[in-house]
Write a structure and sequence with these properties.
Elements (H helix, E strand, L loop, with lengths): L15 H8 L4 H6 L7 H20 L1 E6 L1 H8 L5 E4 L4 H7 L6 E4 L3 H12 L3 E4 L6 H13 L4 E3 L14 H9 L3 E8 L2 E4 L6 E4 L4 E6 L11 H24 L15 H14 L6
Parallel strand pairs: 1-9, 2-5, 2-6, 3-4, 3-5
Antiparallel strand pairs: 6-9, 7-8
Helix pairs in contact: 3-5, 3-6, 3-10, 7-8
Length: 284
């Protein structure tokens, strides 16, 4: 599910009918054959370290799911889905959806390569493109993957905001494929918030209590106006964010969650050691 993820304005695609017809040409081959500058050793090392850190956070924290029953039904039936999440929550959501081979938009910038490397080591797929570079091809590829039965993740306010602005990418993917949007969010008791970043990016800390919430699926009807569609997505994302916050406030106290592991060094150190072994690099 889930980093500098790019979304695109509606102007990138003027005619959905024409777009859907182009899906028959299977853009995956041409998209993946497009040459991007390969990752450097630093990119690979940073990707491994980032994935290791998220494994450590996950293994030493209490993860509390908060899932809508309709979402669980979609998961059980292996339906193709369009996940939507605010840009600042994506770090741990990538870990929460690890190994699912979901596709996430990532910019073609140098910074985007760091994110792509983390996702690769978490078993996710990066679709490279943003509003300023490769956006149209990336959006068509996302639609194609959903139509092929896959899952995709989009941050409507990414990659550069403004904060909680709904750009057109997630709406276009849902409308073109006829698949539901799943609003997603997290809430972490122990975290670092980068207050000076445009999105106030959130990075959970180890030995925390983290709520991972998936809201009720909803569709974007063809006749729905852009303004109404944006309002629906925004309300759904803010609603699931608030639900995650309420669940965290009602959760067990600080010391009664898995943070207590830190009081027992053998347990805490063993969890960290197992996490590091699991994400050890096979090739940098």
């Amino acid at each position: 599910m889930m980093a500098a993820v790019s979304v695109f304005p509606l102007a990138l695609i003027d005619n959905l009918t024409q777009l859907n017809c182009s899906m028959d040409k299977s853009p995956t081959r041409s998209f993946e054959s497009r040459v991007l500058k390969g990752p450097t050793l630093l990119h690979r090392l940073a990707g491994w370290l980032g994935a290791c850190y998220l494994h450590v956070v996950g293994k030493t924290s209490t993860i509390q799911p908060l899932d809508d029953p309709d979402y669980l039904t979609c998961r059980k039936e292996r339906q193709p889905l369009v996940y939507a999440l605010w840009h600042n929550t994506q770090a741990f959501l990538a870990y929460a959806h690890r190994g699912e081979q979901a596709s996430v938009m990532v910019s073609q910038s140098t910074d985007g390569e760091y994110i792509a490397q983390v996702m690769k080591r978490l078993g996710l797929r990066a679709v490279r493109g943003s509003g300023s570079r490769g956006g149209g091809s990336a959006l068509r590829e996302m639609i194609h993957r959903v139509q092929g039965g896959g899952q995709v993740g989009v941050t409507p306010d990414g990659p550069k905001g403004p904060l909680q602005t709904i750009h057109g990418g997630v709406i276009e993917v849902a409308r073109a494929t006829g698949r539901p949007i799943i609003p997603v969010s997290i809430s972490s008791r122990r975290k670092v918030v980068f207050a000076k970043s445009w999105d106030q990016f959130i990075v959970p800390l180890p030995f925390s209590h983290i709520v991972v919430a998936h809201g009720k699926p909803f569709f974007i009807e063809p006749e729905l106006s852009l303004a109404d569609a944006q309002s629906r997505v925004r309300d759904a994302l803010n609603g699931i964010r608030d639900a995650a916050l309420r669940a965290l406030e009602a959760a067990p106290s600080y010391l009664s969650s898995r943070l207590a592991n830190i009081l027992y060094p053998p347990i805490g150190l063993a969890a960290v050691f197992l996490a590091l072994i699991r994400c050890r690099p096979t090739k940098l």
